[in-house]
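INFO worker-7 received task bundle
INFO bundle size: 2
INFO processing item 0
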Amino acid sequence: MIKYVGQTEIKEKHRATCHCGAVVLELTLPNGIENPRRCDCSICRRKGAIVGSVKLSGIRIVSGAENLTLYQFNTHTAKHFFCSHCGIYTHHQRRSNPTEYGFNIGCLDGVNPFDLGDVVTNDGVNHPADRT
């Protein structure tokens, strides 16, 4: 668990926004940022975000729900949300654990994800749900 990123304290209730501010989220992060990671699946390697995870109840849309665009592909299990104005990925309902959201750490107020240093990359190309 990460309680500080650079000089920014990760609060239990931490605000996150897209680039233009049309979407505002409140994340519940009682243990700070847990399990920061990248993924090499076809969408994640293109968007390049570092993500953390919270339970579905851990994200509250404060404002701008009408500005979120849903994108799904392949199995249509994961739900990826983007701001329809600035295009920033804010969060997604995870395919590997649909009881959680992954969130874009770069959207957290005051956080520069490059201050995290080395971040593990998950193998999303060979997704566990694709194995028989």
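INFO item 0 finished
INFO processing item 1
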Amino acid sequence: MRVMGVDPGLTRCGLSVIESGRGRQVIALDVDVVRTSADQPLQKRLLAISDSVEHWMDTHRPDVIAIERVFANANANTAMGTAQAGGVIAMQAAKRDIEVHFHTPSEVKAAVTGNGRADKAQVTAMVTKILALQQKPTPADAADALALAICHCWRAPMIARMAAAETLAAEQRRKYQARLKAVRG
């Protein structure tokens, strides 16, 4: 499975592509950070992110996109910008019929480090180790994008099992309710 991990942001948007192998084996294929200037109008910044993401999707052809889920942030402007960048990325994925999954920062940290409250240095160190990189990815947005992709690779089988279980439960519930309705007639 080829996963594009995205750490959305207006100033710095981390992009990565990894491929999963057998078990927990993952291989880094590419990583970069798209930067936009705060001096530019919002629509120009979003367009720059959209254009870069579009190029990445067309070049790397990911099977799935893993985007960091926006969480409550004391700085509303930062949260809003992150959400807007994430929305642009999800839209580009939808245009290509690429599945999108959102992961919270604590899910990503827990998957990569074993600690949902790990700091950026711990995440970077583990990403470097897991992917057997020669040097640490910088800035932190690049490491976070790789961590998102790793998280999704490792969580995807569980996500698929949960979706299948939910589908089965809904089908069983529908059949049960139909039988109840027939009995009550």
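INFO item 1 finished
INFO post-check item 1: The two ends are 49 Å apart (CA to CA).
INFO post-check item 1: The chain has a mean pLDDT of 94.
INFO worker-7 idle
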